[in-house]
Amino acid sequence: MGIVVIGTVAIDDVVTPFGENLDAPGGSATYFSLSASCFTRVKLVAVIGRDFPKKHIQLFKKKNIDIEGLEQKEGKTFRWEGKYGWDLDNPQTIATHLNLLQSFNPVIPQSYKNEEMLFLANIDPELQLKVLDQTQAKIIAADTMNFWIERKRNKLLEVLKRLDILIINEYEARQLTRESNLLKAGKKIISYGAKKVVIKKGENGALFVSKSGFFTCAAYLMEDVLDPTGAGDTFAGGFLGYLSKSKRYDDSAIRTALAYGTVMASFAVENFDIKGLAGLTSVKIQKRLKVFKRICSF
Ligand code: AMP
Fold first, then answer.
1. What is the pTM of this model?
2. Do 35 and 233 touch, CB atoms closer than 8 A?
3. Range of the domain at 162
4. Which atom of ligand 1 is nearest to 231's Cα?
5. Which CATH number belongs to the domain containing residue 25 in this structure?
6. 3-state SS, residue 150
7. pLDDT for the residue numbered 274
8. Could you give the number of structural domains in the chain?
9. For a FRET experiment, which of 37, 130, 272, 296 has its CA 20 to 30 Å from that of 279?
10. What is the side-by-side order of every strand in the sheet holding 165-169?
């Protein structure tokens, strides 16, 4: 079983209190794919321009990520400029250049059609809907962000009706539901149509809400966080990657999947852009999971 992912493959300009990282590889689908490919087969759908560096495409190949659905076109790659403050939380978006995303018409290749899971990573909800119309996947999950909640709320609500799992951060959950309490926000999202919700809370962990109850998971606390960009997408990659590998979706599998998501995110934030994920091995992941289990048990 594998995962088809549609999202952004981007070039990012990121500033954190620890440095400036310009022309860096990024995008929701990039982080997700690099993370999920540590667990399962990943098939990518995205658009890039001729300006996207070849070495990052080589990395996708090296990680066995299927790039048949990665279209390279004349024009410029999606670009995001963001800045983090000392809390390393919710970044300020300085600029979003949609570029080729504006005319992107995503097509799921025939060879992707048997995969059981679809992840609609953060991208225009209209594109998420176009992909939903082409899929027969059994499990459908999605992410979004403030940019789309503000501009395309109605389309996003259409997406939510068709989801098994929504994975968003606490700020997005509050903005989407107009609730400050996250448990209430999670329940409201379920009333919108998504069957289950994961609310990511940065260094405060994650909250899982379904019709049958809720579960909280701590974060893997790091002393040296350099760049939180992509932590959410990397979390989603670990979470869904584990579920895809284990072929189980019951509450116990979901708890373990949250732990894997958390551990994967910790690798992403300890270095700039995708550097923490590029050379990651299962041995390193298992080792950190063991430590995480020890930290959380009582
Ligand atoms: P995260 O830190 O997990 O929320 O994801 C960061 C990534 O999201 C960056 O690498 C950006 O390129 C990408 N990104 C930023 N804004 C958007 C947007 N409006 N739509 C899709 N992807 C975005």
1. 0.97
2. yes
3. 3-296
4. 3
5. 3.40.1190.20
6. helix
7. 98
8. 1
9. 296
10. 66-73, 41-49, 2-6, 117-120, 139-142, 165-169, 196-200, 206-210, 213-217
